[in-house]
Amino acid sequence: MNDLTPDQADLVEMVRDFALHELAPHTARWDEEKFFPVDVLAQAGALGMGGIYVGEEYGGSALSRSDAVLIFEELAAVDPTIAAYISIHNMVAWMIDAFGNEEQRSAWLPGITAMTELTSYCLSEPGVGSDAAAITTKAVREGDEYVLNGSKQFISGAGSAAWYLVMVRTAELGAKGITAVVVPADAPGLSFGANEKKMGWRAQPTRQVVFENVRIPVGNRLGAEGDGFGIAMKGLNGGRVNIGACSLGGGRAALEKSIAYLKERQAFGGPLIEKQHLLFEIAQMDTELEVSRTMLRRAAEALDTGAPDTVKLCAMAKLVATDAGFHVANQALQLHGGYGYLSEYGLEKLVRDLRVHQILEGSNEIMRLIVGRLAVER
């Protein structure tokens, strides 16, 4: 951490303090009870975590993507589930700030940045996962309104969010026919499926979002018709780096637990930490996390500077960090033996939570496809 600026060091200290006092005492219970702590999210919003890289004019913190990586690592070192939701919320906040007009930003962002009004990002559909250009949820224009019909799948925060940023089809033109719209929670015809029973991420609700003749003003459209796919992909670049940082934080926590455990645990005539093959495991885990941290910072810098290789670096960082985070957590569980399988040690939760990071924000197979295609084009 010696390479941080004084402001970044203060930021890390503030987020770490919040995570230790407001998340750590409750994270196991929230997971067990599937409790979504909206009051604690509002506390995070009050500290500036609801609009990390949104302009200050509408309550944002105006920080950089490089700062965001530090924030999500610290949050996820205590609770990857809550960190990941805050990441998704920030992606929506940024899209509205970056692509909304002044009227939209002044109406929506103050509550969003404060996290008193939560958001959901609606892209995936029941039959459409990785092939985002094939979405079928339709928005038909009737005068000054759009009429929405269709459904979205795997939506974090659904049922608790105040605003839904939805990718809809306004023309049969593949990716060029997709438009971004913002739907309020109280829109007639908007409904939700049951809270999904999931392996991990249990403290944030995941539901299907259903649109049955939902009418919204044309003024709720972000950008022009047909801009949606581009907006979605730009948002996902940042989302990939953030979810990678969440994996890094969770992996770091698993590594720290492993070192402490191996120092304490006596077997075969001494502490386990003295066994060379176990020390090699620790070295491998630490190396994988440090490589991830380096890749994430490089990708974040590319986002901050608008570098030409941003898409590639974000995909690489997401791939490397989410694979590493899960591998380190899984290995940490193994190093703990039977104790790793018990919930009181916190490792099985890290393994469950981090596994999904390899799937969402574009699966890691899609990350390889992006990197491979860009390499061939170059």
**Rounded to an integer, what's the Rg over CA atoms?**
21 Å
How many distinct helices?
Answer: 11
Label the overall shape. Answer: globular
Q: Whole-Å distance between the termini?
A: 35 Å
Amount of helix: 40-55%
Strand order of the largest sheet: 1-4-5-8
Kindly report the average pLDDT value. Answer: 97
The helix-strand sequence is: HHHHHHEEEEEEEEHEEHHHH
- Can you count the beta strands? 10
Q: Low-confidence stretches at least 5 residues in length (pLDDT < 50)?
A: none
Beta-strand share of residues: 5-15%
Secondary structure class reads alpha+beta
What profile does the largest beta sheet have? Answer: 4 strands, mixed
Task: Provide structural commentary.
- With 378 residues, the protein is of the alpha+beta class.
- The chain is 52% helix and 15% strand.
- The protein has 11 helices and 10 strands.
- The strands form 3 sheets. Strands 1-4-5-8 form a 4-stranded mixed beta sheet. A 4-stranded antiparallel beta sheet has the order 2-3-7-6, with no helix packed on it. A two-stranded antiparallel sheet has the order 9-10.
- A hairpin with a 2-residue loop joins strand 9 and strand 10.
- The relative contact order is 0.12.
- The mean pLDDT is 97.
